[in-house]
Amino acid sequence: MLRTLSVALYMTLVASCSAMLFSSPLQASEAVTIEWTDLMPEEDLKALQQMPEVQHDYSQPSPFDDNYQGDDPAAKQWQQILKSAKVVEKYNNTKIRVPGFIVPLEFDSEQNVTSFFLVPYFGACIHVPPPPPNQMIFVSGAKNLKADMIYSPFWISGTLTTEVMTHDLGQAAYSLKADSVEEYTY
Q1: Each residue of 163-175: pLDDT tens digit?
Q2: How many Å is the Cα radius of gyration of the chain?
Q3: Alpha-carbon distances, residue 157 vs 161, 178, 179 (angstroms)
């Protein structure tokens, strides 16, 4: 599946979702409103932006396989970016507000989502490989978030930490204790 996700597509997904989510006026809040690229250290963002186009030669081993031993420099750089858990320390223990999509991890007995990964674009972790750890936030403490609401984007506010959380669906380099979860309206 990763073979079909090029760098340009990844950047387009992140940029498109960020533009869509930031298109309405922001509400006043004590939390700092951030974009997903704010969570990516400058060296990771620069490497992603300068990465050459990946060649898709399906007759050869995939450069996106974990055990890839080839010499495609773009594939090696892409693997490093996809695995990067480097964080932006200035956001550690900061109250933030960030838009994103929910990938449920735990539910309560009434099918409310109680913990989830927040990701920058719809379908991350489900249809394609997960975003890099520094582009995923593990969120706990959500209230009244019904399982059937996960197809909509949300504003999530709370205290962000640089605490890593690993799950079968992916690894998040950031964690957030939710103060509020608001459905995003266009």
Answers
A1: 999 998 889 999 9
A2: 17
A3: 12, 6, 6
